Amino acid sequence: MTTPGEAGAAAAPASVTVLAGPTAVGKGTVSARIRERFPEIWLSVSATTRAPRPGEVDGVHYHFVSEEVFTELVETDRMLEWAVVHGRHRYGTPRGPVEETVAAGRPVLLEIDLSGARQVRRTLPGARFVFLAPPDWDTLVDRLVGRGTEDAEERERRLTTARSELAAEPEFDVTIVNDRVERATEELAALIGVGV
Question: What phi and psi, each to the nearest 5 degrees, are found at residue 50?
């Protein structure tokens, strides 16, 4: 179900598509499915200062870096965007690989947080901005709790952040409701301009 900006959905594909949404909405799951099903879409790999979760692979899910390395990337303008997320860890998109992929004519997908999306809007105004939304609040809470990767304090911190993230939906060109991963994945691929 595509909402605000459906007219924009019919426009020519943007070279960069930014996918953002609240914590636990399934951005990582939808992005992983894009990677599996639509390899012609290049998925940017973010850098982060947090530790890997079980099953995450360095260089595939994230580039896991120290605070010192992250600071150097920021100070040398090698980050397209970056932010402190949930008040704890830094995340960011390395600039070089994105610019190289766009120059090669391949569609790029950035899966980032709200603050990062706002930065990219300033630096790449021609990008398409897609908000991934949960079907409802209770589903979002269930997904976060069911993930089992955060303790109670971290879950509360993330749910507080999620409320403000949900309020930012009108800033985006298109909203995709992640009620079913396969449907949301196909809708995102079609927006990017890849046949389903």
Answer: -80, 160
Which pLDDT value is given to residue 125? 84
Residue among 190, 127, 174, 196 nearest 8 (CA):
174
Q: Give domain 6-192's CATH architecture.
A: 3-Layer(aba) Sandwich (3.40)
Task: Write phi, then psi, for 65 (nearest 5 degrees).
Answer: -130, 160
- Using the predicted structure, report yes or no on whether residue 114 has a pLDDT greater than 60: yes
Domain spans, the chain? 6-192
Q: Which two tokens stand for residue 169?
A: 């939906």
Side-chain-side CA neighbours of 69 within 13 Å: the count stands at 11
Residue 181 · residue 6 · CB < 8 Å: no
Radius of gyration of the chain, Cα coordinates, nearest whole angstrom: 16
pLDDT beyond 90 at 123:
no
